[in-house]
Amino acid sequence: MQVLRLLIAISVAVALGICKPAGAESNGPVPHEVVEPAVTATSHKASLLEGFELGGYSSAGLNIHPGGEKDAALNEVSLILRWEGESRLRFFGELELEHPLTWNQDARFTSHGSKVDLERLYFDYNLSEQVNVRAGRFLTPAGRWNLLHAAPLVWTSTRPLATSRLFPISTNGAMVYGAAPLGDKAFEYTFFVEALKDQDEDRNEIQFRDARGARFVLSGKVNLGVSLLEFTEKSPMNDRFRMIGLDFLTQHNGWELSGEAFQRFYSNGNEGGNGAYLQGVAPIGDHGAGNGWFAIARLEGFKRPAEGSSDRWLLGTAWRMSPSKILKLEYAGGDEERVDSPKGFLASFAILF
Q1: Paired sense of beta strands 223-233 and 325-334, if any
Q2: Is 109 exposed, middle or buried, given 0-12, 13-18 or 19+ CB atoms closer than 10 A?
């Protein structure tokens, strides 16, 4: 896959060539263990009881398809509850109402297809400065996008297929994670295992089970990550897969270059699908406090045995009004349109609250 080779080559070049630290921006590199609590850290929160914080995010969007058909939706309303007292124990929960309201030229406004999803619900316990334990439902630590996919925290309205169709997005189980300094960098690690399969099966999502894996990140001027997973994909054959993922991110003065690449193998060693994307962000004009207009471009490729292959591209712009508000305008093209990867002109607005 050309995109996969390109991503690996650029990640090596970036790692060797960048010699200045990344700029501190609102959506900058965040250690993957604290990405989830960071959603509420940047939002406006209301204290309910001692140690509790309530926040969330929401987004709405419009899609004008290449043939001229139009549809719009309130994409999600997500509520986040976090508790952190004076002990070593912490709690984090996220409840999301998906597609509570949609509109199209035929059915007009409807709430058909909306659902409530328990995105995350877990407890963390701090054993030491380098070791933490997590138990519950959490986002699978595979790459960067899956850990930081909330609409106000990503640059585009659409999500690369490689970050949602190759591995389980969430896991019910246990995790051990931590970080330690390594020279002028930080080394972060995660080990996880699934303990309970999903009880609520969405027919539009791929079902996985028996997932386990690890993720390692070296954070510094360039953030480099490696993800290793093993899981079973629910199908007539219940195929078992092993997967390796590589990701990187670097930022400087408002510029950003990032990418991820995943390769899956069947348990017998045969190729079992792959995907990659490469995304660049460039500031337009002067930017104060990381806000303003940005230009965005992305190339992506995806291949899964049951779905075939797809190559896509995206060009757009985003106006970050503040760390909690972003307006996105983009055009997505490439291979045939999919429900989870639309084509045409897309506009969306996302907010943290």
Answers
A1: unpaired
A2: exposed
Distance linking the first and last C-alpha atoms of the chain: 40
Distance set, CA 246 to CA 76, 166, 168, 216, 239 (Å): 29, 14, 16, 10, 23
Question: Token digits for 221?
Answer: 């001027």
Q: What are phi and psi of 82, to 5 degrees?
A: -130, 140
> Please, which residues have CB within 8 angstroms of residue 342's CB and are 6 or more apart in sequence?
63, 65, 158, 332
pLDDT tens-digit map of 264-277: 999 999 999 999 99
**Secondary structure of the chain in the HEC alphabet?**
CHHHHHHHHHHHHHHHHCCCCCCCCCCCCCCCCCHHHHHHHCCCCECCCCCEEEEEEEEEEEEECCCCCEEEEEEEEEEEEEEECCCCEEEEEEEEEEEEEEEECCCEEECCCCEEEEEEEEEEEECCCCCEEEEEEEECCCCCHHHCCCHHHCCCCCCCHHHCCCCCCEEEEEEEEEEEEECCEEEEEEEEEECCCCCCCCCCCCCEEEEEEEEEEEECCCEEEEEEEEEEECCCCCCEEEEEEEEEEEEECCEEEEEEEEEEEECCCCEEEEEEEEEEEEEECCCCCCCEEEEEEEEEEEEECCCEEEEEEEEEEEEEEECCEEEEEEEEEECCCECCECCEEEEEEEEEC
The reported pLDDT for the residue numbered 271 is 96
Degrees (nearest 5) of the Cα angle 133, 137, 140?
Answer: 85
Beta-carbon contacts of residue 308 (< 8 Å; ≥ 6 apart): none
Nearest to 348, CA basis, from 12, 5, 3, 63: 63
What is the C-alpha to C-alpha distance for residues 51 and 155, in angstroms, rounded to an integer? Answer: 31
- For the chain, give the number of residues: 353
Residue 326 has which token pair? 């972003």
Lowest mean pLDDT among 60-74, 184-198, 199-213, 331-345: 199-213
pLDDT number for residue 292:
92
List, for residues 319-342, the tens digit of each pLDDT value. Answer: 999 999 999 999 999 998 887 889
